[in-house]
Known about the structure:
heterodimer, A: alpha/beta, Rossmann fold, ten-stranded mixed β-sheet, two-stranded antiparallel ribbon, 8 helices, B: alpha/beta, seven-stranded parallel β-sheet, 18 strands, about 30% strand, binds flavin-adenine dinucleotide
Amino acid sequence: MTKKLKIIVLAKQVPDTRNVGKDAMKADGTVNRAVLPAIFNPEDLNALEMALRVKDKNPNAEITVLTMGPGRAAEIIREGLYRGADRGFLLTDRKFAGSDTLATSYAISCAVKKLGEFDLIFGGRQAIDGDTAQVGPQAAEKLGIPQITYAEETLEVTNNSITVKRRLERGTETVKATFPVLITVTGSAADCRARNAKFVMKYKHARTISELADAAEDYIALKTKRPYLQIDELSVADVQADDTFLGLSGSPTKVKAIENVVFIAKDAKVLSNANEEIEELMKELIANHTIG
Amino acid sequence: MKNILVYCEFEDGLIGDVSLELLSKGRKLANQLNCRLEAAIIGANLKGVEKQVFPYGTDVIYMAEDARLEHFLNLPHSAILQHIIRENNPQIVLFGATSVGRDIAPRVASALRCGLTADCTSLEIGDHYEKKSDTTYKDLLYQIRPAFGGNIVATIINPEMHPQMATVREGVMKKEIVDANFKGKIVKVETEKILNDTDFVVKIIERHLEKSKVNIKNSGIIIAGGYGVGSKENFNLLFELAALLGGEVGGSRAAVDAGYIEHERQIGQTGVTVRPKLYIACGISGAIQHTAGMNESAMIISINNDPHAPINQIADYVINGEIADVVPKMIKFYKKNSK
Ligand SMILES: Cc1cc2nc3c(=O)[nH]c(=O)nc-3n(C[C@H](O)[C@H](O)[C@H](O)COP(=O)(O)OP(=O)(O)OC[C@H]3O[C@@H](n4cnc5c(N)ncnc54)[C@H](O)[C@@H]3O)c2cc1C
């Protein structure tokens, strides 16, 4: 293949909801995000791997990681660079605060347009902090391109098409699409490769402009010598997004109420693990025909 | 009049269970709002399909039949559904939270610039007063779902931009026939006028679908294991108890994430919803996302080494102890006392 494939990977930094321990809850019942580690959304890592595999076979392909989030989400871009991505952009602006999936996908679509021509966009099927699986399809719609959801494996890439196996509830489906197309990847796809030591060396000093503001002088000198160490930030103005479609005003869904669930405690019979107590329970369940 | 529309999944001559469940819920909401219940069915060979749908009290079926639509494809199905929504202006549109529903719903919501709430565990009608603008919105759809982490439930509304859209997992709503002889109206949708060649740029090459092997949704007895089970091997104990009692094994998401058990068996908001007569929760803490999928079980037994595990509060029996100790005893004393 002679053509230089352009690939974008959408990745999100998320609180690790899989490890919500007891200390993660505040007294008022809300989540204390500060104690949750911020991680690379797991299925976005599967998406990155799928992109890297395309690049393995097409070495002149270019992979761009695009993430939307606060300043510290630059970590996601560095993580992507360590694993083989070529460059990254952080879409960050206060105006994004309060965005639901529609507003988020609008912002992402504006950023993608700003980045120019592309052939493939990969993203995780869903993020573990909301599990909506909506942003991928909505971004595809806003970009006016087709989508393939639940992708598990890439079977073939030509210079204008991709063939993908999808994992559905009851089996698999193989589909073929011409570029450009947006693909969302499920957790059953191949795990992401580990960091590459060479890339870690190369990019460990990669910083966004905001991060550089706090950096030491010699750091800035370093960056002038090696421009690839600059991670670009994109603001609402940079991507020419319309404010009214962002944040709370651009989000049709509103949270009306958040309630703590108070379990109406049943009068539970409490048993120990003593033989007699468990035998008694089993007899009771048999007698009242719950079992047996 | 603004009605309620249910997007019906159709495959191999059958309307999906989740769609029939949503029609049942939609009928109740329509009665409350005093509007019609409508269904959108898109596919090939739709002859007679209305017989599956009318008994749930469906007043109108929008039927889009086209040989090219035999299997679900995002672009043509989205285009037709958008057309139906634009023409008929429903106030609410409901989808199953399946691989089909979660593929088409966001695409359509984006095109129509309306809100969409995923994986609702309850849908209700209610009003909303907006202080800032001093406006009261009447009869909104409350889209209720457990929220991120912990025991919190969020009520989501879409005050301005309609239709209000939501997805609901299979099993969450109950399937209820209203009247086996109910007859509604069929409205044919002219697909040729809506579809373009560009809607078929994604092509299906091959499909391998099988009947699901696991059937926890319809099992009367469920032995569910959580992260506290500790390993895939330890789950064998649960399988042994399930086989003995004629039940199925389910799991929490933490158990699925840890690789102890396959995803098909996940119970909860983002898994299956179950209502067995007996639910034995082994090493499950009882997060709302889990209990949302099992709290209507007729009897709940919790086995946990933490006497304060939240799940104990909804249990009928609490056994304080180690799984490795308690489950073998249950097996032993069941064998001893049965027959
Ligand atoms: C958007 C979203 C959707 C979600 N959807 C779901 C869903 O569909 N289903 C779901 O289940 N979860 C879901 N979750 C995750 C949920 O919040 C919890 O994290 C999860 O249910 C916890 O699983 P668990 O109870 O097995 O694990 P833990 O919370 O870790 O609990 C383990 C329990 O085992 C007990 N235990 C440990 N060792 C032993 C032993 N040796 N003997 C006896 N008891 C022992 C402990 O005391 C504890 O109570 C979702 C989360 C999010 C954010």
